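Protein Record: Sequence and Backbone Structure Tokens
======================================================
Tokens: labelled as protein backbone structure tokens, with as many entries as the chain has residues.
Task: work out the structure tokens from the sequence, keeping to the layout shown below.
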Amino acid sequence: MRIHTYTAAETGLLVNSYLLETDQGVVAIDTNLLNSDIAALKARLAALKKPLFAIFVTHAHPDHFNGVMELVREREVPVYATLGVERAICEIADAKRAQWAPVYASEWPSETFYPSVVLLNRQVVDVDGLSITAREIGQAESHADSYFTVQAGDEPPIAFTGDLGFNGTHPYTADGHTTAWLQALDLLTSELAGAQHILPGHGAPTNVRLFDDQRRYLLYYREVVGRLAAGAPTLTDEAQVALDQAMQQFLPNAPLTWMIGLGANAVATEIACERLVHV
């Protein structure tokens, strides 16, 4: 197996799409956000001059599923996702288009192709010598997350973990599930200890230390948001500026800084609700 990575520009959130080249064909994992990057990914696929055997989608965010329609437009290809991911994509795709199409204009795809094959937790799919195992995680970075491990023969597995860990960029926290995400990170550190490589949705290939780094980021982000919000479900403009400064100091020179403020109110609301439950 040879892995080809297409990484979008920062306008496309630096998202990674992976093409796994086998002897006879190609398997895609995640498919980019914007039409220009999707076209580039499609060109990369065409350059391999092998048929596309399958597409796997790690989670329910458009930067990972927006490009599916263009990849399957000229061919019949199974599109795999876990049950939770498939349901979440069906629930949010139209709302995401309504939210972001005015921002990105013609760069936002006009159609969504929904997963056609739903996988159970830990279900294995065999594709041209690759054993691909689906692992349903549930709410974490998004409303529904999963990861896939891919094993070729007796080689150690490689994990494609979507956005369960961002490597070297500020993460997306606006779905407001940071407590569940932290719990998932504890699980991932144990489950993927034997993975040869971890290929994240954003950032370079790495190892299980990715999840320790993501945990530290989320814990600090929650601490700063909680302190600045002081029990309120939203942050003031001044608090937003303070949060941005704190997180840029925590992760200096990292891209996607606009993500810092994007999730602030969602996490403030999450923390405020948790406090109410424990009163």
